[in-house]
Amino acid sequence: MALFSEHFQWPSTLVEFESIGGGARDGTAEVVERGGRWILKSPRSFSYATGQPGVRVLTASLDGTPTLIRGTVFGIDGDLGLRVDELRVGSTVDDAQYTTVTATFEHLASACSYRHEDGAARGPSQALLFPEVDGAPQMEVTLRGGENSITLVAPEPVPLEDFETQLAVFQTMLTFAADLPCGQLTLIATEASGQTVNVFGRDKYAPFERSTRAPVEYSLRFAGDWIQHTIERWWAAYSEWKPVLYILAGLRYQPGYVDADVILSSAAIESVATALQLHEAPRLSSDESRPILEALESLTGLDHAQKEAVAQLKGDLGRTTFRSKVEQLIRQVDDDVWQRARVSVKEWTKQFLKARNAIAHAASSGIWEDGVLLRGIRDANWIVLTLVILTHVGIPDAAIDRAAERLGTRYGPRYRDIEIFT
User: Apex CA 140: angle with CA 170 and CA 101, to 5°?
Assistant: First the structure.
C-alpha cells in the first residue's frame, strides 16, 4: 500500500514527530516529494540493519490534529529518511479498532444509478450486507444513488484491515461493472471510542481519472432490488476463484502488452470454464474406445516410460477436452445475447483455442504477429468473461441484454476486418 503525493497536502513542510517502537528517534523532518511519494527527511533520525523490519511508526500533530504516520525507511541524499505509506489524521492509536468506515470510489455514483432494464428498484432504506470473506466479518452496507460513497458498519469493533478486505472485494465488482479502473479516493473511519479518523494512503494505485461513462454503459448497476443476491454470488465467486477476479481487475487497472492481456484473459477463461464445468460425456463412447484400449493392452515389453505413456493415453480417452469446457461455458449464455454482443462464438472459439494452445505449448505461431487479431481476441475474451459472470451472479435477463448490446457497440466496430465480431 502507498500514499501518493496527490492524495494529501501537508499543512507545513516541517513536521515534529515522536517515534513509536524502534528504528527511529524523535525529531523534526522536512517533507519532500520524490517520484509522486512523500518522504520525511530528518538526518540521523532513522536507522536500519539487515534483517530488521523497514516499517517505522511515528506520531505528530498536523495543524493541531493528532496524527499517526506509518512509513518505510528510504534512502535519500546519502541518509535515511521515511517514505510515508499511511497517515491517520485524527488519532495516534496504532492498534485502534473501528466500527464504521466510509470510502469514496471513482465512478460509483454512475454505478448506483437506476435504469428501467434493472427491473424493480432497490428501496433507499433497503439494507445491504457484505458476506464474511477472508476472515473479515459480515458488514452492513449503505449505498446512496448519485453519490460516490459507500459506508460499511461492522457488528463489533474490528481492525481497519477487515474493512479494507471487504472494500477490496467491492472494488473488483465496481471495476468489473464499469469496465474502467475505479480507484479509491477517500477513507474515513470511526474508532470504537467515537473518534473520526481520516485515513490517507493504503492505496495500490494513484487516481486513474478516467472519464465517467453514462449509467447505460455499465455491465451491472447497484440499484435493482436483486443486488443483494448478486453481491452474495460475487463474494462467493471471490472466495472460490479469487485469481479470476483479480485478473479481471488487473486488466483494467494496469493493461499490459496486448499479448500479455491475451494470456491473462485466456487463463481466466480456462479457470472459469473449469470451475463452472458440468458433467459431460467423454469425446468417445465406451464402444468407440474399446478397440483402442484393446490395442493398448496388447502392447508387451514396454519399459517404465512407455507404460506411463500408455496409462496417459487411456486416461485421455475418458477425459473431457478443453474445447468441450469452453463450449459448455458458451452455452451458459443464451444465443441471442451473443448476437447482441456481436460475437461469433464459433469464430471466437476457433481463434481463442488456437491462441490458448499456442500459449500452453509455447508453440511458434503467426498469431503473435497479427496485432489486430490479438486485440480482437483480447476484447472478445473480456466480453465472454463479462457475460458468463453476469449470468453466474444472477443479473436479470433484461440487464444482461443491455450489457451485451453496449459491449458489442463498444468493441465490435474496432474489428470490422476479423470474423470474431459480426
Answer: 70
